[in-house]
C-alpha cells in the first residue's frame, strides 16, 4: 500500500498557481512517480479531475515532432490550473521501455513499423505500462472517485479494476502536427484511443470540459 512520503508547496506554470508536489512510499516498481496537486478553492473534492501522464522526455520537455505528449501535458495543466485537481506524473518513459529503447523503437519506425510493432520487434509488449500504482497513489491521497483526463480506455479499465470509480473521462484534443500523424493513427486504430483526427486544429483546447 502506497503512502505519502513528502508534500511540499510550490507555484507552477506561467501563472505561478498554488500547488503541492507529493512523493510516495511503497510504490512496488521503485519508480519515482509524483503527484502535483492544484490547490483551488472551487475544485471538486469528491470527484477531482485527474490526469495520469506517462513520462515522455522528448515530448514533454522538447515538444518533439514525433508524438503529442507535450501538448497533452500542457492541455491537462491548463485545465488543472483553472479547475483544480491532480496530475500524476508516472515515470513510464516510452510506455515503460525507457528512453534509450524508445529511441531504438523510433529508428524501427523510420524503417516502416508502427509504434506498437516497433516495441514488439525489440522484445517488449506493445505497452509495458501498468496503472495499478496510479490507483495506489490516489488511495494514498484519499481519493476513490475521479474524472479522468485521457483518450486511453486502458487507463480507465485499470483504475476501476484497482478500486477507483471513474465517474467520467475527459478527452484531450487531437494534437496533430507534421511528424506525428502516423503515431496518432496507430494509437487510434490499434491502441483504441478515442481520438478524432479530423478535428480542426484551430478548435483545440476548447471542447474538453462539459
Ligand atoms: N515505446 C514507445 N513509446 C512512446 C512512443 N511515443 C510515445 N511514447 C510513450 O508513450 C507514453 C504516452 O502514451 P500514449 O499512448 O501517447 O498516451 P496514453 O498515456 O496511453 O493516453 P492518454 O491518456 O490519452 O495520453 C509516454 O511514456 C511516451 O514516452 C513510441 O513511439 N514508442
Ligand atoms: Zn511523447
TrEMBL record:
GO molecular function, one term: GTP cyclohydrolase II activity
A GO cellular component annotation in the UniProt record: cytosol
GO biological process terms on file: riboflavin biosynthetic process
Alphabetical list of PANTHER family matching this protein: 3,4-DIHYDROXY-2-BUTANONE 4-PHOSPHATE SYNTHASE, GTP CYCLOHYDROLASE II-RELATED
Keywords noted in UniProt: GTP-binding, Hydrolase, Metal-binding, Nucleotide-binding, Riboflavin biosynthesis, Zinc
Keyword hit for Manganese: no
Cofactor: Zn(2+)
Family annotation (InterPro entries): GTP_cyclohydro_II, RibA, RibA-like_sf
Pathway the protein takes part in: Cofactor biosynthesis; riboflavin biosynthesis; 5-amino-6-(D-ribitylamino)uracil from GTP: step 1/4
Record's catalysed reaction(s): GTP + 4 H2O = 2,5-diamino-6-hydroxy-4-(5-phosphoribosylamino)-pyrimidine + formate + 2 phosphate + 3 H(+)
EC number of the protein: 3.5.4.25
Residue ranges annotated for the GTP cyclohydrolase II domain, each copy included: 18-171
Organism: Methylophaga frappieri (strain ATCC BAA-2434 / DSM 25690 / JAM7)
Pfam families noted in UniProt: GTP_cyclohydro2
Protein name: GTP cyclohydrolase II
SUPFAM superfamilies, alphabetized: RibA-like
Domain of life: Bacteria
Key word Hydrolase present: yes
Amino acid at each position: 500500500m502506497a503512502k505519502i512520503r513528502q508534500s511540499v508547496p510550490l507555484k507552477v506554470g506561467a501563472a505561478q498557481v498554488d500547488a503541492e508536489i507529493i512523493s510516495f512510499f511503497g510504490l512496488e516498481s521503485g519508480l519515482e512517480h509524483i503527484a502535483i496537486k492544484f490547490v483551488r478553492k472551487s475544485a471538486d473534492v469528491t470527484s477531482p479531475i485527474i490526469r495520469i501522464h506517462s513520462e515522455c522526455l522528448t515530448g514533454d520537455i522538447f515538444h518533439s515532432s514525433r508524438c503529442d505528449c507535450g501538448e497533452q501535458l500542457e492541455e491537462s495543466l491548463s485545465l488543472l490550473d483553472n479547475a483544480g485537481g491532480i496530475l500524476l506524473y508516472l515515470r513510464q518513459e516510452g510506455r515503460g521501455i525507457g528512453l534509450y529503447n524508445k529511441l531504438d523503437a523510433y529508428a524501427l519506425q523510420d524503417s516502416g513499423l508502427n509504434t506498437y510493432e516497433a516495441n514488439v520487434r525489440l522484445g517488449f509488449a506493445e505497452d509495458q505500462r501498468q496503472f495499478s500504482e496510479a490507483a495506489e497513489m490516489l488511495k494514498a491521497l484519499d481519493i476513490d472517485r475521479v474524472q479522468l483526463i485521457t483518450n486511453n480506455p486502458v487507463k480507465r479499465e485499470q483504475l476501476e479494476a484497482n478500486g477507483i470509480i471513474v465517474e467520467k473521462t475527459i478527452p484531450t484534443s487531437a494534437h496533430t502536427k507534421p511528424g506525428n500523424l502516423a503515431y496518432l493513427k496507430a494509437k487510434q486504430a490499434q491502441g483504441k484511443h478515442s481520438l478524432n483526427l479530423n478535428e480542426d486544429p484551430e478548435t483545440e483546447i476548447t471542447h474538453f470540459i462539459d
